Amino acid sequence: MNSDTDAFKGIRVACVELSKTAFLPAESFDPNSLKLLACLKKVEVKLSTYEDDSLSPKFADYVFVPIASLLKQPTLGESQTEYVLLIISHLLRICWSSNGKLPQQLAQQLFPLISFLISPDKENIKLNSRSDEFKHAGSLVLYQFFISLRLQQYHNEFFSNSSPKSLPSLGHSITILLKILEQTPQNNELQLKVLSCLEILFQDIITDGEMLSFILPGNVSVFSKILMKPGRQIHYKVCVRTLEVLVKLLVLVYDDFGLQVQVNELTDIRELNEVGLKSEQDQSFSFNKPIVLLQKDNESDGNTHRDTSWLRATSSQIKIALEAFIPKLLKRNNDIINEKLALFVSTLLDRCAKSLHNCEPVFVSALVNLKRDPMFKLSTHLGSLKKVLNEDLDKLSDIIRFENADKLSVMEFAVDILQKNDDDGILVNGIVKRLLGSMNESIEPPTLVDKKDKITEQSSRITTMVNFEEIEDGNGVITLPRLSKDISVNLQNFARHIGSLLLENSNLSNVIMELISEQVDSPRTQKIVALWLSASFLNGVGRRPKEEEDYLQFGSSVDDSGSVAEEACLTVLEYCNELSQDVSMEIEGNGIKKSDEFAICTILSSIGTVCSVMKHDFQPELIDYIYTITDSLASPSEAIRSVGQSCALTIANTLYHGSVSTMILSNVDYLVESISSRLNSGMTERVSSILMVICQLAGYETIESFKDVIETIFKLLDYYHGYSELCLQFFQLFETIILEMKKKYASDDEMILKIANQHLSQSTFAPWGMTHFDQVLNMLDKETESKDDIMDDAKLLEESKGPSSFQEYFDSKVREPDSDDEEEELEGDSPNNDADQWVSPIPRDSYKILLQILSYGERLLMHPSKRLRVQILLVMRLTFPLLATQHNLLIKEVASTWDSIVQCVVCADYSIVQPACVCVEQMIRYSGDFVSKRFIELWRKLCQESFILKELRVDPTVHNNDTRSIEKRVKFPPVTENALVSMVHMVLEGIKITEYLVSEAVLEQMIYCCIQVVPTEDISAMSLITGDIVWKIRNID
Fold it and tell me: Which residue ranges have biased composition labelled Acidic residues (predicted)?
């Protein structure tokens, strides 16, 4: 009571001021008076401070006195009416909210008044122009009224046929709420308040479905419009609340139990007369569908609204509405909306399955597309589920072609439910055939693929570098022709799921066997697609069963599934072998096309999949496929290399503890046999690339197993030296062999130099560093050999000027003694020869390979192919440091190859000059004084014949007065620049061994050329003599 007294005191002044305006006569009353508006605001603000249900109804009677007088005025302004509504909502909240405080008579008077104040016309025309604030006030007062009403004892009778006075206002208030809901799409709070009003009304006040059936159509129409609007206009929370309210309304109206629906299955056509169905057109279903009857039809007294006719008419309208807004909600792809939509559909299937039987396909399709079944209802509607799946399967080609990846996961969800009731596996087997057919229709025909450009290497260098650290274990998805990576991934996931179901039915092997056997006369692309699909089925073998199926896994069933999987794997492997041979024969000599790339990638991926499934049982099968895998690692196609690396890593992780090199070494005998057979068959195109990959992966040890193959390659060089591409590949292989040999035996350059300089005397006191007579004899022998070499060189120069063609040159070189013959002669001269003391860390057999490579390189150095000559010079540059580990054999090879390489140094093609200069630099560095005279002759030849030297000023006496300008040379093109730098480094290396043997003028000439290319500081630091000459050139005119 004290609270009422305090409230009276607080509100009294505001009510008195309001009464002064409210009790004015009609002719003096201004409905839009600002003073009136201010008084209403004061009352509303004061009321907003009171807590819910804190005051008695007497307080409301006191406050309502000026409001009642105000309402008797002819008109009232919009803003004034808005605050009147807010005041009434506050009175409902603080005085009329609990049970017994709102008498039924007062509620019957207040409810139509509220509806009238919000919208005085039944068509709600004026409401359209009202502000959002006004609409919010109207929604709030209705919300508070319904809140108060549901707490009263009479709330169930308030809107019923027993008290019809309130029914017109009920209809009016619902149309008001629906109008506000529809017309305020940007005001989320207002829409949510309206939906809360309707929810209280449908759920707590009107519980009679018969009563709600009258207002159902209008509600469903507005709700559908709301749900169909795009996400930019309707907030997801509004959609969620709309679905919650709509499902409660539909359940109240169409509840099977409330309607007492009886479903009769027709067994005879004559039963149609018994149920009183005169025309098929009156039905929303066909004869094989359930016929819905209502027991109420027979019991009704003519006042029942919901009868069979009503059900037929309204259920079809409900279906139209559902078909309109459900696809829109699915496209929004909002998880919260999807979750609520799934619950919406499942609830209707649970409570209204008979009444809304015509909507069953819509419900089932929605749950399948949502991939959710929260109430496990799909298993009881298998007929509709099969129909939905078949409709999607009929469109599978379009689904694949237009890359509708989500549809594939939807189909997977449907198949997962259906297969639990598919004991004979007919469903899954049928899906396999339709899947293969749809994939073949979707991909590009092979005739079109073959017309595309061949896959070519990006450079003359064969790409063989393999980095397994960047490759993930496991096979990636092979992208199907004309399809994207995403749809290919989804297709494989779908096929993988089908494979797991086939394994559960112990039907995997039979399906794969049938699938492959049907492709005998098919085009190759379709065969590859069948293999792709079969391998995807096998991927499903490793899928774990679901948790609810864990308890059903018995030992015998696991063993059976393992044998079925192994049989399927062997079938796929045999098919891979057959297709691999066909593809290999086709691409030999013709290059790789896009269709070949797809085929090889699929074969490799399938082999990796089989290995993943068979585990250690794959070991005996590997020997048949190790060459195919290794071959892929050297492919010019990046895609094939990538898949090959993934496949190799999968096998290595499964069988060889992750070591690819161990895998190669363990199967090197089979690789030797495969490569030898291909060489003997004339299939030489891929051999060098494969050997390069093997050598890089497993190291130089593999070359020792390939000695016969290497000898065969040397023979092929004899026979096919005119084929530049073949020779180029072989010398690229030689480069790899040399690099791996260096890595194993002499990886440190300092160590090589130390070994190479062992023949030099370190003593400065004894004559020439000699301490006993044997060393004197050795020195005399070396001097004799050097004289013989010089005489041989002179003899060569006195002979004919040279062969007229490369063929004559090569033939003449073949007639010369081979490097291995020289080695045999060297070893067989005398038992006391130094060759008995083998100081090189490189074994004799490996050293012999170096000599052979150098010999064949020297013979082919005058080949017309520039690419081949550059590659040979590169190989020679790598060879000389390794030969230097056995000095007595090095000097023979230097003497033999010097003139050929020098000819490359003075040629007009700078791209050849550059590697030739680097090669000569290496020869000088490791031969030392042995080539000092040859270098002096080389300088004379450079001055007379070299094209590259003409780019520089050679005479130091002919330059302008600014002597420092010689260091500022012109900027050359990259090819010229590289050649000049290499030539200068070669000259500087030669100066180290000849600076005491040439005249100062010649030395000054050499250094003058070098200064124009490299920094003077580098030259000055070489020795005192070079430093003095640099100073002289720069400072003395």
Answer: 818-828
User: CA quadruple 335, 337, 342, 343: dihedral positive or negative?
Assistant: positive
Can you read off the two tokens belonging to residue 966?
């010689």
CB–CB of 152/121 below 8 Å?
A: no
Other C-beta atoms lying within 10 Å of the C-beta of residue 800: 8
Max Cα-Cα span within the chain: 149
DSSP string, 527-581: HHHHHHHHHHHHHGGGPPPPGGGGGG--HHHHHHHHHHHHHHHHHHHHHHHHHHH
Whether the Cβ atoms of residue 667 and residue 622 lie closer than 8 Å to each other: yes
In angstroms, the CA 756 to CA 866 distance is 32
- CA 859, distance to chain mean position in Å, is 50
Whole-model pTM: value is 0.74
Give the residue from 895, 509, 859, 521 showing the smallest Cα distance to 717. 859
Amino acid (1-letter code) at residue 200 = I
User: What digits encode the pLDDT tens for the residues 3-43?
Assistant: 788 899 999 999 999 999 999 998 889 999 999 999 999 99
Distance CA 231, CA 241 (A): 15
Name the token pair of 844.
Answer: 């004799």
Helix 236-254 vs helix 209-228: crossing angle, to nearest 10: 150
How far apart CA 208 and CA 253 sit, in angstroms, is 8
Provide the total of helices (H) and of strands (E) in the chain, helices listed first.
Answer: 49, 2
Q: What is d(CA 286, CA 266) in angstroms, rounded to the nearest whole number?
A: 11
Give me 715's structure tokens: 């023979």
* 188, HSE (Cβ side, Cα atoms, 13 Å): 11
420-427: long-range contacts (C-beta < 8 A, 24 or more apart)? 420/379, 421/379, 421/382, 425/502, 425/505, 425/507, 427/386
Which stretches within 830-909 are classed as H helix? 844-859, 866-883, 887-905
DSSP 635: -
Calpha distance 374→871 (Å, rounded):
69
pLDDT tens per residue, range 119-176: 998 888 889 889 999 999 999 999 999 999 999 999 888 888 777 788 899 999 999 9
User: How far is Cα 790 from Cα 934, in angstroms, rounded to an integer?
Assistant: 9
- Give residue-wise pLDDT tens across range 331-343: 999 999 999 999 9
Question: Which structure tokens are listed for 63?
Answer: 């406050």
Residue 305's identity, in one-letter code, is H
Supply the Cα-derived Rg of the chain in whole angstroms: 48
Structure-block tokens of residue 8 = 């009276």
Convert the pLDDT of each residue in 180-219 to its tens digit.
999 888 889 999 999 999 999 999 999 888 889 999 999 9
Question: CA 113, CA 108: separation in Å to the nearest integer?
Answer: 9
What are the C-alpha distances in Å from 423 to residues 209, 373, 410, 679?
Answer: 43, 22, 22, 54
Give 262's strand partners: 293
Distance of alpha carbon 529 from its chain centroid, rounded? Answer: 21
Inter-residue contact 639 to 597 (CB < 8 Å): yes
* Residue ranges per structural domain of the chain: 209-380, 667-760+808-825+838-905, 910-920+935-1037
Structure tokens at 351: 């409570």
3-class SS string, 147-191: HHHHCCCCHHHHCCCCCHHHHHHHHHHHHHHHHHHHHCCCCHHHH
Backbone φ, ψ for residue 263 (5° rounding): -110, 120
Coil, strand or helix at 480: coil
User: Which sign does the torsion angle of CA 452, 458, 461, 462 carry?
Assistant: negative
Measuring CA to CA, how many Å separate 126 from each of 72, 78, 137, 277, 565? 20, 10, 15, 47, 74
Q: For residues 351 and 358, what is the distance between their CA atoms, to the nearest angstrom?
A: 14
> Distance between CA atoms of 720 and 687, rounded to whole angstroms?
15
Q: Which long-range contacts (CB under 8 A, 24 or more apart) does 758-764 make?
A: 758/839, 758/887, 759/887, 759/888, 760/928
